[in-house]
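Technical annex, item 7. During the second reporting period the consortium partners agreed on a shared format for inverse folding records so that results from different sites could be compared directly. Each record opens with the tokenized structure and is followed by the designed sequence. A conforming record, contributed by the partner at site C, is shown below for reference.
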């Protein structure tokens, strides 16, 4: 089956959880009822309102679920200092995309 046939199922929403910088998304998702990891993503959003459908409003990286990745605490939104978020320091915060089995 194609990846989208395996992963996009059900009539319920999936969840996005903050990723702890030293843990694997497989473990983070596995500890919840949304126990299957589909991806780890690193996201950054740009300030302002989208005015059309071709303007870039953010960027992302897509990682697998089985590695801790970059352990830098600056990429962990929960552990990062609040002023780093609100002063628009350029960090890609990392998240786990989890779904029900």
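Designed sequence (site C submission):
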């Amino acid at each position: 089956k194609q990846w989208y046939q395996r992963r996009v199922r059900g009539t319920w929403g999936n969840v996005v959880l903050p990723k702890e910088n030293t843990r694997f998304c497989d473990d983070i998702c596995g500890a919840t009822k949304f126990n299957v990891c589909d991806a780890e993503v690193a996201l950054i959003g740009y300030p302002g309102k989208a005015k059309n459908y071709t303007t870039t409003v953010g960027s992302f990286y897509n990682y697998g679920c089985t590695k801790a990745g970059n352990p830098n605490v600056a990429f962990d939104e929960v552990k990062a200092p609040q002023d780093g978020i609100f002063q628009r320091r350029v960090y890609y915060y990392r998240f786990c995309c989890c779904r029900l089995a």
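Residues 1-6 have pLDDT under 50 and may be disordered. The helical segments are 3-7, 25-30, 82-86. All partners now use this format for quarterly exchanges.
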